[in-house]
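Sequence, structure tokens quoted for completeness.
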Amino acid sequence: MQESFDGEFSGIGVEFNVLRDTVIVVNTIAGGPAERVGVRANDRIVRIDTLDAVGMSRTDVPKHLRGKTGTKVGIDIKPQGIHVMPYNQNINHYEGLMDASGHVLFVDGSRKPDLTKLFSGKVPENTEGIHVMASFLPADANLSDDPAEGFVEGNIISIIYKGDHYKYKIRSKNDVDYYVDDEWLWNMGDYVSVVVPDEKITYEVINKGARDD
């Protein structure tokens, strides 16, 4: 996230500390430029204007954050709640039951797969009660603020920063978790929809000998 600050303050209005070569926001001054644009305690300042803030000394930081009243200071921050750490590749798996019309009913909604492809050309006369597993990769999904656009809706409960994108965990109102890789930065708690193109969802019949009648 990149922000520019201007106003009556001789700085951006933050108290900071330097821990392990990282500039950490300790507190923001009420009504100050930083607070007004959403900077919060525990955010990490990684760049000040064109300068890399990682490794910057405690005495050098205020020299670059402060300036004459009316001038602007640009900073890049990594918001709190985002962790720079490796993760194992997750695949979204969701089990559902097919109804008589060929729709698969999941906890958070329904989708209709290509029945000919799903059953290898031999579609049963009665599809009701067949167990189906749907799966998609986090990289094949993205997020939207339009509830009508997505596969499912929910709140962002986890963010992992991966360097060139973010990995999100979205929890639906039915407490089902969905994983999405997206290059855009969203905020913790944002209510979003998970958009998955139909061609990116893989369906598989499971427990072929069993039905829920």
